[in-house]
């Protein structure tokens, strides 16, 4: 299957494109965001990487033909989980938070929580493809990101917000001028996952408190999440507030049990894949 068949996209306002993997039918299917800038373009998250994302972007002319853009496309992972980081190795410039640099550089498929089944891929990307052989490929980041860093695209800037909880290196990218938040898996319109190997509830609460404050200060109008559909500031406030309210003793106890089971299952699965 060609890259042009594997992906599909929508053009949104303000030079933003929404890309998805057409034949990955799963709640884990991540949103891929392409942002055009006057001097630099950025892709936020890269999906599974089963077909070439750069090839698709170029074949569809999503970057245009502007000589002012001298820098290669920068791919940023909001975190290194497999559904977001699988295609990072396809790019010349790669950025992730400093807490997850080693996991990506070492191809650590435990920390990337690689968990993919054949039934989620409804059309094989290549003859004989099997999910059990899928691995996140190691890549050494060229951009090591941390809180407060600014990605300068020329006519717009994206500020890095370290928002751990879902993973230790989870980030959001905030376009302050346009009041847009690219939230990764920190928040989306669904149940927040805090039971993975490097999840931490206390960090998640703090991250959600930051989000609530940003909404109260009217710094966000629109959220471009890592999964599902976009939503506005009122929904963001509700999602973050609800998580904080629910993260009590009972939630912590049940999450601890689920986390232990998930960690054992992931280690067993990735041990078999490595054989």
Blueprint of the fold:
Layout: H1 3-6, E1 7-11, E2 16-21, E3 32-35, E4 42-44, H2 53-59, E5 74-76, H3 82-85, E6 93-97, H4 101-105, E7 143-145, E8 150-152, E9 157-162, E10 171-175, E11 180-184, H5 201-216, E12 222-225, E13 231-232, H6 233-246, H7 249-274
Parallel strand pairs: 4-5, 5-6, 6-7, 11-12
Antiparallel strand pairs: 1-2, 2-3, 3-4, 8-9, 9-10, 10-11, 12-13
Name some characteristics of this structure.
seven-stranded mixed β-sheet; 7 helices; alpha/beta; 13 strands; globular; 28% helix; 275 residues
Describe the structure.
With 275 residues, this protein is of the alpha/beta class. 28% of the residues lie in helices and 20% in strands. The protein contains seven helices and 13 strands. It has helices at residues 3-6, 53-59, 82-85, 101-105, 201-216, 233-246, 249-274, and strands at 7-11, 16-21, 32-35, 42-44, 74-76, 93-97, 143-145, 150-152, 157-162, 171-175, 180-184, 222-225, 231-232. The strands form two sheets. The chain has a seven-stranded mixed β-sheet with strand order 1-2-3-4-5-6-7. A six-stranded mixed β-sheet has the order 8-9-10-11-12-13. Helix 5 packs antiparallel against helix 6 (233-246). The radius of gyration is 18 Å and the shape is globular. It starts with a helix and ends with a helix. The relative contact order is 0.13.
